[in-house]
Structure formats: C-alpha cells, structure tokens
Amino acid sequence: MSEEILNISNLHISVEGTEIIKGLSLTINKGEVHAIMGRNGAGKSTLANALMGHPAYSIESGEISYNGRPLEELEVFERARAGMFLSFQYPSVLPGVKVGTFLKKSIEAVRGEPVKQKEFRTQLKAAMQLLDMDRSFLSRYVNDGFSGGEKKRLEILQLVLLQPTLAMLDETDSGLDIDALRIVSKGINQVAPQAGCLVITHYQRLLDHVKADYVHVMIDGKIVKSGGPELAHKLEEQGYDWLEADA
Amino acid sequence: MPMPPRAKHLWRYTPWPRIQPQDGVPVADKIVFTVNGNNNLETGAPRVVLESDIARVFLSEIGGSSHTLNIEGDVGLVHIQARASGHVAAGHLHINCKGNSTVILHLTGEADWSGLYISGAVADNCKLAYGFINELSNNCKLLHCEDWSVARDSTMEIAALSVGGFRCKSDVRTTLTETGASLKQAVTVHGLGARHIDNHIEINHKVANCNSKLVINSACAGSSRSIATGLLKVAEGANGTDAGQVFRNLLLSDKARADSIPELEVLADEVKAAHGAASAPVNPEQIHYLMSRGLSPQQAEAMIVEGFLIDAFSCLTDTDLKDVLATRMTIHLECELKR
Q1: How far apart are CA A144 and CA A139, in angstroms?
Q2: Do B293 and A55 touch (CB under 8 A)?
Q3: ipTM exceeds 0.85
Q4: Is B152 helix (H, G, I), strand (E, B) or coil?
C-alpha cells in the first residue's frame, strides 16, 4: 500500500478576504510526483505558500493532513523540521548571510542537532557537484545579487541537502536556460524517490526531465482535470481554453 | 569650558551631562593597552587638542594612560587589548602608520566610566585598516573620540563594532589631507535593553581628488536607542571629491529608536556627494523564508540581524579586518541568543 504523505480535502484559502482556492482536494503518496499546471492567477502558488504556512494566506475551511497529522497544528518552522520543503518562486535576499552558514544552520535546524563540519562539507561537496555549482557560491550572501537561475539553483541545493519528505517546487523552472533546467532537474530527481513532490510549472519542458506521475490542471482555485504526463503535452499543444469551457 | 548647548547638532541627542563621569574632572585610572599580548607600546602620545570641543578637552585633562604605536613596513595583523577597570578609566593611543597594517583595538572592562582617545596619521602611500570593538560591560559609560589624518595616495579603512556599554558616545573625525587619499568606514551598532549609542562621524575632504564612503548599520532591540550623525565636509577647491554616506536602521521592537542624520557641507563645485538613510523593522518575508528552512522565529531574527550588521563591512576590502569583526559579531550574537 502507498504511504500517504499529504492529504488535502475540500480546501478553501483566502488572501486579504478574497477566496483564491475554492475547494481543492489532492493526495500525494511517497515516491509520487504531482505536477500542477494552470494559468497565471489560478491559485497554484497560493496553494504551495499556504501549505508552507505563509501568514498572508488564511485557510478558511477544509482539512490538510501531513504524514497523518493535521497541518494546522504546526508552525512554519515545525513544518520544515517535519520534512516539508518549499522551493520559492521568489526566494528572499539575506544580505550579510553567507550561503555556507545559511545551509549549515538550516540543516542543523531541520535535523535538530549539530552537524559535524566534516560531514557537512562532504554532503555539500556532493550536492554542489550534482548541481554543477562552484564553491565560490558559498561565500556569497544568500540571493544577494544572484541571477534568476542562481537563485533557483540555490533553492535546489537546499532541497538536495535537506532531503525533505514533501518537496513543493513553485515554478522552479522559470528563468532557467536549457542546461540549467537539466541540472536542476537532476536535483529534483534525486530527492523524488524518497519524497512526495508537488511541482508547480507553466511548461511541459520541465516534465521532459522530471517524470510526473500525475498532472493536474487548476482553474479558478480548483483542480478541474487530472491525468498522466500526456495531459501536459495536450496543454502544451492546445492551451487551457478547452478546459475552461468545461469548468 | 562652558557646557555645550543642546541646540548644537553634536550634543543634541546625548547632552554632555549625560556622558561625563561626574561634575569636575576626576582622577582617572589608566586604561591598560597590550599589543599582541605584550606591553611593548611606546609611552607618551602627541596631544592635539581641539579647543572648541569639550569632549576632547576633557579627555586631554583627565589623564590616564598615553601610548604610541609605530607601524613601519608591512606589519600584518596587530591586536591591541584595551582594558578599562576601576571607577573612572582613561587612555590615549596614537597610531603612526608609515607602512601597511591591520590594527584591531578591542576595548573591554568594567569601569563605570571610560574615556578613550585615539589619534593617528597614515603617511603617504600607506595603508591602514583599523577596527574598533567596544565590548565593555553592560553598565559602563563610554566617551570615545578619534582623530585621523590620511595623506597622499593613502588608504584607510575603519570598522567599528559597538556591542558593549550602557551609554556610549563616539566622535570619530577623519581628514583627507592630500590628493589621492581614500577612506572607507563602516560602523555597526547592536542596541539591546536600554542601551544608548551615539555615533558622530565626521569626514573632512580638504583637497581635491579624494574619496570616502561611510556605512552605518544599527540594529536596535528592547528600548535601546541609536543615534548616528554624519558630517561630510568638502572644502573649497576640493574638486573631484567622491563621497557617499549610507545609514540603515533595523528596528526590532516597538520601543527601539534610531535617529540618522547625515549632513553635507560642500563648498567645492565638482563633487559627487551622496547620502541616504533608511529605517525599517525586520522584513517578515525574510523571517518566513528562514522559518521555512527550520529556524525558529528567534533564530531567524538573529540570523537576519547578524547579516544586516555584517553587511556594513561589505564596503571594506581588508579581509583580516572584516573577518575579525564579523567573527566577534557572530560570537556576541550567539551569546545573546543563549541568554
């Protein structure tokens, strides 16, 4: 039997009094990759941010359980320590905070114990090799002066190092060139077998590298259609109009 | 000497009676200076007292220790410990730089009141990176003045880390005396509890084609208060001056307060002189980002504060200077987080 990681039932989310998610249900099991596609403003990022506990998003009704536990019981940092990870579409800039320091403190916070320097260096070296990243990255300040592609690589570096149980990737492919997309996908694919993955994307091209088990289409805060990878191809060819008519 | 009126810019925020040790001029114990663990400083220091400034006159009258550090050739990293003990302690150190060096002055101690005067000169074609760390005990008062001159084609970098003392007034003045002189200055202040930290930074461009950059980052928690007044003077004829001043404040509580007052006094025509000031609370998006990586709200705020303060040193180029001050900052903040 599949191991359930995330279960969302009839979820309604609002932002500043406006309902964005309007009755969404979704189950993600371990080892499954779920891709969510949809037009701008459909509510994809709202879903990811609300799951991570961003204070701007209010869960009005519905239920979310993570590893069998009500998600609402957990603060943002407790969600991270419990294995949830969000690769942000627009990660924050942290002036004066070196990437190396930030990564080590994050790992220690998630694991709940100090990490030996040697062990950290070994894991970091392997992850950076996988993502084709230069060591000079470590002495830069987090996202300070980074290009769009560098920011996304740093998010995936964190994903690989933190080894989450639930990985949510919010438009990680946006702003990436073809080579960078391939490299970032390697990182996602390394984590995916041990985790449930929720991949938010606009483009089929990411799904050429990351194999999605399920593709869902969101329109106006709801999942209106689910299918296999072939659905992403159809969307690429035909757009969303044919689904909007149904919705 | 008459008491300076509060209407004067320099004494508006920390009036003289609030920073002097007591009425009259007390007898001061000596601040003990040790260099790289040894007492090998030359005794005595040249006194150049600015008669119009009560703080400098007071520090001149009060006595205490007096030493000179001579730097010749490439000296590398010099650590000076300055220890202030007793009721009232005072000291004067003069640094004469005729080479290249990084000097770190680390002030510690429990004296109720400390008076520290630092003076120095950087000779032609020389480079001095100078760091001042104030880690006095939490109930100490500090009056601290510095006067520097930087000569032809010389470079000076000044970094200050203020994390100690209860009430501190620092007045640091640098004069770029000859063409090609360059100054980079970074000041960081961490206000905790009811600390009151007043920094006055004066940069004086006397001649043409000099440049200076000043960055002051203050993070204030509790009911602490940080005051930063900057005065950039560009003399008549000092064309080709390139100067910038940035003041940033991070307010960590509703009761914390920070005042930034950059001032320009430009008498030359062809000058680049920029200044800016900004105050804000911690960005909640930064807190959320760090919490999404497992850091508690307290850990997240501490990391943001540390980064904010260390970022002031980004304008410097001397690696030793930056590393030493950043390390002290990290240790200080980790200790505070565990309290």
Answers
A1: 11
A2: no
A3: yes
A4: coil
CA distance B33 to chain A (A): 32
pLDDT in tens, A163-204: 999 999 999 998 899 999 999 999 999 999 999 999 999 988
Tokens of B103: 């000097």
CB B170 within 8 A of CB B198: yes
Domain count, chain B: 1
Facing A96 at nearest CB: one of B284, B297, B310: B310
Rounded Cα gap, residues B124 and B152, in angstroms: 5
Q: What pLDDT digit, counting tens, does each position of B90-145 carry?
A: 999 999 999 999 999 999 999 999 999 999 999 999 999 999 999 999 999 999 99
> Could you tell me the residue range of the domain that residue B252 belongs to?
29-281
Contact call for residues B253 and B225 (beta carbons, < 8 A): no
The CATH H-level superfamily of A4-246 is P-loop containing nucleotide triphosphate hydrolases (3.40.50.300)
Chain B closest CA to A247's CA: distance in Å?
Answer: 34
Q: Both tokens of residue B285?
A: 């998006």
| Residue B134 located in a structural domain | yes
Q: Is B309 on the interface with A (CB under 8 A)?
A: yes
Note whether residue B300 is domain-resident.
no
- pTM (global) more than 0.90: yes
Is residue B90 in some structural domain? yes
B298 to chain A, any CB pair closer than 8 A? The answer is no
Residues from chain B that touch A53, judged by Cβ atoms under 8 A, are 291-292
